[in-house]
Amino acid sequence: MNPYLSAFVLSVPMVVAAPYVAAETHPAQAQMQQNIDAVLKIARNGSLSEAQKVKQIEQYADRYLDYERISALAVGAPWREFSATQKTEFIRAFKDMIIAMYSHSALIGAADAQVRLLPKMTVNGNKFDVFSELHTKKGTKYEVAYQLYKVGPVYKIYNIRVDGTSLVTVYRNQFGELIKQKGIDGTIATVKAKGLKKQ
Fold it and tell me: So which residues are the signal peptide here (predicted)?
């Protein structure tokens, strides 16, 4: 997994391509600007330890990331076979694994990055793609697309793509193989033990 993707995690059925629209004042983009600013402020706070930064970003992200939908999309079709208890256990384990594996590199990347929202977005019913451009300290540039849907006044993130690499698909092949080899409970145990390969 690209570390800059995970930086904003700590910060899908196929749809018909929607036209780009101006987004300077759209509420989805305004919220994403607020989210990015909040994550970067925490990452750059020199008075906090790394553990404190991770905890604060995690608590902030909990309000805006739909971990259930992210998990369902990452697992794919086998998600329908999970019981309610298995789904709950998997969601918690998947979130904990991602944070443990990528928090350090994510904080470094977020602290050094320059991010700007792009004046475009796609709209498809209640789904919105908001785009940003991330520049690293080394001069590398990435386009980050946040996929959201609206729940009341809040736009929930259900996927993030960095230069076309999707959060919900980077582990799907591993989950598919694990479920075939170890079953659902064995897969959950592997995720709890952080036993997946780092992407």
Answer: 1-22
Question: What is the full DSSP assignment across 45-103?
Answer: -TTS-HHHHHHHHHHHHTTTB-HHHHHHHHH-GGGGGS-HHHHHHHHHHHHHHHHHHHH
Angle at 193 between CA 187 and CA 194, to 5 degrees: 90
Tokens of 90: 């998997």
CA-based radius of gyration for the chain: 17
> Alpha-carbon distance 68 to 32, whole Å?
20
In the chain the domains, ranked by start, together with CATH numbers, are 27-193 (3.10.450.710)
Tokens of 94: 């998947």
Name the strand (E) or helix (H) holding 38.
helix 27-43
| Overall pTM > 0.85 | no
Summarize pLDDT for 58-104 with one digit per residue, the tens: 888 889 999 999 999 999 999 999 999 999 999 999 998 888 877 77
